[in-house]
Every structure is written in structure tokens, then in C-alpha cells.
Amino acid sequence: MTSSYQQQLDAKVERITAQFSEYNMPALNVFASPENHFRMRAEFRIWHTEDDMFYAMFERDENQQKQVIRIDEFPIADQSINTLMPKLLHALKANPILSTRLFEVHFLATLKGEMLVSLVYRNALTAEWEVAAKTLSEQLDIKIFGRSRGQKVILTDDYVVEELQVFDRTYQYKQIESSFTQPNAQVCQKMLEWACNVAQHSDQDLLELYCGNGNFTLPLSTRFKRVLATELAKSSVYAAQWNIEKNNIDNIQVARLSAEEFTQAYNGEREFRRLQEAGIDITSYSFDTVFVDPPRAGIDDETLKLLQRFERIIYISCNPDTLHDNLKILSKTHKITQFALFDQFPYTHHVESGILLEKI
């Protein structure tokens, strides 16, 4: 591990340890990232000059003015993305149908070797574009997805299928182009194993809020009798259901509800046709654990009150500040018994955390 990476990781550990010291937190369990080639996603602007085009990103100078930075390689991205970048750019430059008005290029890679490239344009995509893009897709053995204002062109698929190893089992995940997925797949595998370890084994049921595409849901299902997972975004619910079926798991139900809506349903304040149509009877579950992986804004007050009713809370956080704020309420009924730091985003200020709270 180089000194520069270790220094930035040490700084994060120091920051989290100091920020949460008031909660008498246990020793921090730190999960490092590979130093290079850890991101499975990369997005670039395409910068056009009179006689050239190249991948670009931006940074602000001392006057807060945006400066164009040419990107020929991107060491933090997966090696497959770095290998493809020059080949793709050369092919795009050679074909005016594909290069004209090209605005952005997005890469989505997997550990198993699949690659989806999204080409984003400022002009409408034509039949000629589809023919050229299909040819390029076959030449480079990649999936290509086209997008412009109000238009999406799917040549084969708009997703890749990732494989993540959790202990001795491999799980397959459909990852859709426009949906959120964990960008650091190797650290994600460590997160999944950590969550399973702190969950231990229960003869009762798990409630999961904000389940996304079922990233945590699938491996956690091995630790509980049944799992009820909730997610509002339709594309994520679809992906989660696909993933459940693909992995031959039969003890998970997915409810298309927000955390706030689930709280209303669980408290008997409101009935939802979506639950009835999915054949979900909340009252049939016996929950002892709740798992949450909320957005950066954290958890609303009513849902926090709901969480306080469970024996155990497993909380994955992408924002230490909202986690700290939520703990002001949760610490009244629960104590932190496990605390982990996952370095999902090396060389940035972002910190991913995991805590286990158990009822006092």
C-alpha cells in the first residue's frame, strides 16, 4: 500500500473516529480499496477541437473558472475501461456518423468482463447511426447504448450482469445503465460479507428499506427465514426481481414502496394496492432486524421512529453527517456494537460506513 493511499485512508479513519466519539463507538473495522483500477463506472465529456476530439473532465482554477482536462488514461477506473478507451476513441474519430455532436461517453464494466458503453449526443440518433453503432459494438465486443434529448436507442441491452463473490457463493446482478450500483465492486464484496457477518443467523425475518437492485438483499436472505425488501424506483424494483429469480432465491418479497410509505403501511395508517397486487401481507412477517441503506439525505423522522422498534438495525451510510444526525435519535434506544469504514471512493472525501445497532 503506497504512502499516499494510506495517508488518505488514515485521514478518513481519524475523521470518523473523532466525529462519532460521543457514541462510545467500538473499534473501527476498516476495509481498504485497491489503490488503482477500482471503479467500474467512468463518465467523460467528449471535447471537440478543429482537428481532434478527446475524453475530458473539468476542474476549477484559483478563480473558480472551469478548465478542460484532457484524459488519455484513467487509473482509478477498471483496467478493462482503460484498455477500451483508446480503441473506442480511435473508432469514433474514424466515423463521422458516430463522432458528430457526440457529447459524453459513459463506461459501465463488470468484474466478469462485460462492458456497456453509453454514447450521449446533442443531436437526434438516426437509422444510419444505429447501423454504425451496431457495427462498432460487434467489432469491439461491447454493448452500446445511444442517448440524446428525449431519445434512447438500445442496440442489444441497456444493462450488464455483474458477478459478486460473497463467501463461497457467486451472485449475479443485473445492473441497468441509468440505475445506481456500487461503483467499487471489490469493496462492495467486502461490504456484503460484513453485512452477513453482523447479521449472523436468525430464525426470524428481515425488513430492508431502500433495497435498490437487491445488492444486499440477496446474500442477506441466507441469514433470515424471510426478507421483505422495499424500493420505490421502478427500474430498481424490476432489477431486484430479476436478480432474485436469476439467483434462484425463494424467500424474498419486494414491495414498491418508499420508506415513508412502508412506515404508514406497517403502522396500519394507510393501505396500498401495490402490496395487495404483489401478494404481500406485512402482518405475516416476524421481524427482528431491519437493514437500511438510505440516500445521502439520511432517514426521515417517522422512519427513524419505526427503526427504534426493532431489536437490531444494520445501517449502511454514504454520508457520515446524516448518519451522525440520525444516531441522535437511534442512540436513545440502541447502542453501536459494530462500526465499519468501507473505502468505496479513494482519493475523495466521501466515506461509506456500516454500523450494527442493538437494542439497549
Automatic annotation (TrEMBL):
<dbReference type="Pfam" id="PF05958">
    <property type="entry name" value="tRNA_U5-meth_tr"/>
</dbReference>
<dbReference type="InterPro" id="IPR011869">
    <property type="entry name" value="TrmA_MeTrfase"/>
</dbReference>
<dbReference type="InterPro" id="IPR030391">
    <property type="entry name" value="MeTrfase_TrmA_CS"/>
</dbReference>
<dbReference type="GO" id="GO:0005829">
    <property type="term" value="C:cytosol"/>
</dbReference>
<dbReference type="GO" id="GO:0030488">
    <property type="term" value="P:tRNA methylation"/>
</dbReference>
<dbReference type="GO" id="GO:0019843">
    <property type="term" value="F:rRNA binding"/>
</dbReference>
<feature type="binding site">
    <location>
        <position position="215"/>
    </location>
    <ligand>
        <name>S-adenosyl-L-methionine</name>
    </ligand>
</feature>
<dbReference type="GO" id="GO:0000049">
    <property type="term" value="F:tRNA binding"/>
</dbReference>
<feature type="binding site">
    <location>
        <position position="231"/>
    </location>
    <ligand>
        <name>S-adenosyl-L-methionine</name>
    </ligand>
</feature>
<dbReference type="InterPro" id="IPR029063">
    <property type="entry name" value="SAM-dependent_MTases_sf"/>
</dbReference>
<feature type="binding site">
    <location>
        <position position="293"/>
    </location>
    <ligand>
        <name>S-adenosyl-L-methionine</name>
    </ligand>
</feature>
<dbReference type="InterPro" id="IPR030390">
    <property type="entry name" value="MeTrfase_TrmA_AS"/>
</dbReference>
<comment type="similarity">
    <text>Belongs to the class I-like SAM-binding methyltransferase superfamily. RNA M5U methyltransferase family. TrmA subfamily.</text>
</comment>
<keyword id="KW-0949">S-adenosyl-L-methionine</keyword>
<comment type="function">
    <text>Dual-specificity methyltransferase that catalyzes the formation of 5-methyluridine at position 54 (m5U54) in all tRNAs, and that of position 341 (m5U341) in tmRNA (transfer-mRNA).</text>
</comment>
<feature type="active site">
    <location>
        <position position="318"/>
    </location>
</feature>
<keyword id="KW-0819">tRNA processing</keyword>
<feature type="binding site">
    <location>
        <position position="182"/>
    </location>
    <ligand>
        <name>S-adenosyl-L-methionine</name>
    </ligand>
</feature>
<keyword id="KW-0489">Methyltransferase</keyword>
<dbReference type="InterPro" id="IPR010280">
    <property type="entry name" value="U5_MeTrfase_fam"/>
</dbReference>
<feature type="active site" description="Proton acceptor">
    <location>
        <position position="352"/>
    </location>
</feature>
<dbReference type="GO" id="GO:0030697">
    <property type="term" value="F:tRNA (uracil(54)-C5)-methyltransferase activity, S-adenosyl methionine-dependent"/>
</dbReference>
<feature type="active site" description="Nucleophile">
    <location>
        <position position="318"/>
    </location>
</feature>
<keyword id="KW-0808">Transferase</keyword>
<protein>
    <recommendedName>
        <fullName>tRNA/tmRNA (uracil-C(5))-methyltransferase</fullName>
        <ecNumber>2.1.1.35</ecNumber>
    </recommendedName>
</protein>
<feature type="binding site">
    <location>
        <position position="210"/>
    </location>
    <ligand>
        <name>S-adenosyl-L-methionine</name>
    </ligand>
</feature>
